[in-house]
Design brief:
- A six-stranded mixed β-sheet has the order 1-3-2-4-6-5, with helices on both faces.
- It has one domain: 3-Layer(aba) Sandwich (Uracil-DNA Glycosylase, subunit E), CATH 3.40.470.10.
- It is built from ten helices and six strands, in the order αααββααβαβααββαα.
- α1 crosses α7.
- The longest helix is centred in the N-terminal third of the chain and has 26 residues.
- A hairpin with a 2-residue loop joins β5 and β6.
- It has about 270 residues and is of the alpha/beta class.
Length: about 270
């Protein structure tokens, strides 16, 4: 039997092993970005309900100054191979004291040209999502897991995420938002530290260093799959409720506690 032939049992086994290794690398990278250091403590938590949030990180006295320092350290970055084809580094933009931080996957073509996050079609949809929450774009903060555009907009690889991860951590630590919203599988998996699909991660409250973390679909996916806009709106309702009340209803588990109220008729996009 020829090894590596995808039509043979051995070929299928090789594909399964490769996928398992890919998922494991993603989990390990996500845990690193999430700041997991004490494995014994992490595994000793009781598997009942949501884990207790980690001690909240303290906010920078000068968030804007902190972000400026971080951006300066990224100038001319050559830490991974993404630098070879980029036009501009896309650091992030918005309020340094934003109550809400959106984290996407990485820059696209238009973002690479302008050096700003979410300025293409997906960015216009994100603007509508932000407006639906009652914010101006300038009042929130928007950034990505990786700061340079992956070739042909492919998903960032684990090594690339590991290189950019420390800068993402410092961005969030500098801002210290009340809520983080992860847009799409890459951002969600990186911040949660898991290989689970976005469909499994959305609809529940996770925590990143004590900050509530809500996962939802990436705006680019919503443009391709408009039927999921209703589900994304449910996630935004949860973000809105946490921002308004400072707490999570029904423990943030499941979707019963996050359904729009009967008076809510807002929606995302046309």
């Amino acid at each position: 039997m020829e090894s590596g032939n995808p039509m043979t049992p051995s070929g299928k086994a090789e594909r399964d092993i490769a996928e398992t290794l890919r998922q494991l690398r993603l989990v390990m990278t996500g845990l690193q970005v999430a700041g997991i250091e004490d494995w014994a403590a992490a595994w000793s938590r009781p598997a009942v309900g949501l884990p207790e949030p980690e001690k909240a990180i303290e906010q920078e006295q000068d968030p804007a100054g902190g972000l400026t320092v971080i951006a300066g350290e990224l100038e001319g970055c050559r830490r991974c191979r993404l630098h070879s084809e980029r036009t501009r580094i896309v650091f992030g933009e918005g309020s340094a004291r934003a109550p809400l931080v959106f984290v996407g996957e990485g820059p696209g073509l238009e973002e690479d040209r302008q050096g700003r996050p979410f300025v293409g079609r997906a960015g216009r949809l994100l603007d509508q999502m932000i407006k639906a929450l009652g914010f101006r774009r300038e009042a929130v903060y928007i950034c990505n897991v990786v700061k340079c555009r992956p070739p042909k907009n492919r998903t960032p690889e684990s090594e690339e995420i590991a290189r950019c991860g420390p800068f993402l951590i410092r961005q969030i630590e500098a801002i210290r938002p009340r809520v983080i919203c992860a847009l799409g599988a890459c951002a969600a998996q990186t911040l949660v530290g898991t290989g689970s699909s976005i469909s499994r991660l959305r609809g529940s409250v996770h925590y990143w260093r004590g900050i509530p973390l809500i996962c939802t679909f990436h705006p680019a996916y919503l443009l391709r799959t408009p039927a999921q806009k209703a589900a994304a709106w449910e996630d935004l309702i949860l973000v809105r409720d946490i921002l308004r009340t400072g707490c999570v209803q029904d423990g943030g588990i499941g979707r019963e506690g996050m359904k729009p109220s009967p008076t809510s008729d807002r929606h995302i996009g046309p």
